[in-house]
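# nightly structure sweep
# worker-07 picked up a monomer target from the shared queue
# config: single-sequence mode, recycle default, output format = structure tokens
# input follows
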Amino acid sequence: MSRAAFELNDEPNFSDRLDDANAERAFEAHAAEIERFLLGLLKDPALAADIVQTTFVRLIEKGGDITSKARRAWLFKVAYNEAMLSIRRGKVAKRANQKLAWHARSRENAQSLDESIQGVIRAEDVEQIRLALGELSPELQVIVQLRIYEGLKFAEIAQRLEVPLGTVLTRMRNSLAKLRMKLNELK
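# output follows
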């Protein structure tokens, strides 16, 4: 079959449509029993009602060639196929949601682990800094503590210790250089 012929056969054939009067009669005759069938299969009244509607839409679109004797069986087959499709979609969605939840939990666990590791690293860093501070002379220690832990400005430190501002700045610079050296040795 040529591509052009195939494309023509793919287009909707309006002669396959079922007229409104026959569709209405089929709906009155079979809708309730199809809905009961679907309800037993799906256990979801809203989904069963939706599939009944879909089934009859298919009947209107493609049921023109189906004889009235074969119509009931055709309707049940379409309803069953739609129900199975819905169940498969539900399972796929459920698996996707489970995977998404698993990934979210994994990310949370990884983040929690990262935070724990960062906490340990920070604790180690704090301990190393504390040890390095302990090796500074008392005059240098006091300046670092006042500046870093108490947040005082250099002028305030100079005033509190009753030493010139230049001395405070020099001692702080020396303290930082010694701390940097000690911390590099520890790494």
